[in-house]
Amino acid sequence: MHKVTRLIFLHALMLVPLSGCGGPEAAMDLIAVGRKGIAHQKQALTATHSQLVRQLKATQAALDSAFDADVRLAAGRQIKDAEGSPIALSPEWIISARKGYIAARDAIAEQILSAESVHLIQQDNLHAADEALEMAANLVIQQALISDRIKQYLMKIQRRLISDTGAD
Questions:
Q1: What 3-state class would DSSP assign to 1?
Q2: Exposure of 10 by Cβ count < 10 A (0-12 exposed, 13-18 middle, 19+ buried)?
Q3: Which of 44, 99, 147, 149 is 20 to 30 A from 85, alpha carbon to alpha carbon?
Q4: Confidence class for position 168, pLDDT limits 50, 70, 90
Q5: pLDDT tens for residues 14-40?
Q6: Distance separating alpha carbons of residues 71 and 75, to the nearest angstrom
Q7: Contact 162, 14 (CB under 8 A)
């Protein structure tokens, strides 16, 4: 190789190890922050979901209590119709009231199932995002290892070129 060409190549090789971005440490820090954010989001979703389910179950319990209270009031002839006349506790009244309460309870049960489904989907999405960040972290590590090997190889070439240049 011509001496000037060798010197230009040598200077170019010296610049290669100095080039690059923020480095793997910066990327790993960003990934760690992302994973921490995902963990916090998972906790927040779980807390919100738990609160919603507790509220819905409390609504179901209140509905059951209201049905029991209405039956007791009707049995004591304390519930009045639109004209102000007491309603008798008849089989028709019990069947009608039970159907209304069952429909309301079923609607609440559907809300609980829907909340469970949404919660599982959200948790799965967050888990997938966390796995993607873990994969990115592994790629950053692999890239850093490969980059180090390339730098070592280029430094070896530099030393050879320097020794060859000194011999000329």
A1: coil
A2: middle
A3: 99
A4: low
A5: 544 444 556 889 989 999 999 999 999
A6: 6
A7: no
3-class state of residue 80 by DSSP: strand
The whole-chain average pLDDT of the chain stands at: 85
Nearest partner of 10 among 151, 162, 148, 163, judged by Cα? 162
Bridge partners (DSSP) of residue 80 are: 86
How many domains are contained in the chain?
1
Give the count of alpha carbons within 13 A of 19, CB side only.
9
The b/e string for 67-103 (b: 16+ C-beta within 10 A; e otherwise) is: beebbeebeeeebeeeeeeeeebeeeeeeebeeebee
Structure tokens of 52? 């919603």
What range defines the domain where residue 23 resides? Answer: 3-167
Q: Above 60 in pLDDT, residue 13? A: no
Residue type, 119: H
Token digits for 110?
Answer: 């559907």
**Token output for 74:** 């009707």
Q: Is 31 exposed, middle or buried (0-12, 13-18, 19+ CB in 10 A)?
A: buried
What are the pLDDT digits (tens) for 69-113? 988 888 888 888 889 888 888 888 888 889 999 999 999 999 999
